[in-house]
Design goal:
This protein is α/β, with parallel strands linked by helices. Helices cover about 40% and strands about 15% of the residues. The structure holds 2-phosphoglycolic acid (PGA). 2-phosphoglycolic acid binds near residues 172, 235 and 238.
């Protein structure tokens, strides 16, 4: 299975800055076999970055951070996944900031996952418990609920096109005080995810679904998270905005891959 290194730039960088940053990255990263490097800029930067990548036939991929689940229609201010066709290869769906700041529910998210699959954009469905849920011992229940809720429109065949990202909400943005998740705890949750996927789709399919880890990944801890059994890549926020760090993490992924 491929290893995925996904940089989520969130609401940072102007279009111009995004382009300059990508240029800088492209000079430093040499995509390796089996390694999928993806960046998720602001939606308005997708098109210029797409052109930049296409011009040099780069293998670096683009992800959209969010979209609206209907294809077309009277939805002022929204961008649909159909409109992103040809611009984004992946779509981050259900990031905790979407769930908790913008109130996205499992119902919205299952429609988004289905819409992405329908439009040949690979969904990266994010799941993870909050600090409170963790403290109340609800991690397993939350993981199962978010998986079942987000995937309920996806059948076995479509599931082959879906990626899951486990991001404990309490571990996101350590630069703002979040705690780092212990690799052993992450390993437990990854097992729960894989088992639940097996319960829904069967063991064989479940083994083929990429599961990424996200939450304050940096060059110092990337190796530890990447070597957790069942982890197939990383979703990186803060560190993806620092080119030295992002490049370091990619190098680590290459080493781990052997
Ligand atoms: P972080 O963000 O790496 O800054 O913690 C991860 C994410 O929100 O996807």
């Amino acid at each position: 299975m491929k290893t995925y290194i996904v940089g989520n730039w969130k609401m940072n960088l102007t279009v111009g800055e995004s382009s300059i940053y990508l240029q800088k990255l492209l000079k430093r990263i040499k995509p390796a076999k089996g390694l999928e490097i993806v960046v998720a800029p602001s939606i308005i930067a997708l098109q210029p970055l797409r052109m930049q990548l296409d011009k040099i036939k780069s293998k670096v991929k683009l992800a959209v951070q969010n979209f609206y689940q209907k294809e077309y229609g009277a939805y002022t201010g929204e961008v649909s996944v159909a409109q992103l066709h040809g611009l984004a290869d992946y779509a981050i769906i259900g990031h905790s900031e979407r769930r908790y700041i913008f109130g996205e529910t499992n119902k919205d998210l299952r429609q988004k996952v289905a819409a992405a699959v329908r439009n040949n954009i690979t969904p990266i469905l994010c799941i993870g418990e909050t600090e409170n849920e963790k403290n109340f011992g609800e991690t397993v229940d939350v993981i199962k609920d978010q998986l079942n809720g987000g995937l309920s429109e996806i059948d076995v065949e479509d599931m082959k096109k879906v990626i899951i990202a486990y991001e404990p909400v309490w571990a996101i943005s350590s630069n703002k005080g979040a705690r780092l998740a212990a690799p052993d705890d992450v390993a437990e949750s990854i097992k729960v995810i894989r088992n639940e996927l097996a319960a829904i789709y069967g063991k064989e399919i479940a083994e083929e679904i990429p599961i990424l880890y996200g939450g304050s990944v940096n060059p110092n801890n990337a190796g530890a998270y990447l070597t957790i059994p069942g982890v197939n890549g990383l979703l990186i926020g803060g560190s993806s905005l620092i080119s030295d760090h992002f490049v370091d993490i990619i190098e680590t992924a290459k080493r781990v891959q052997g």
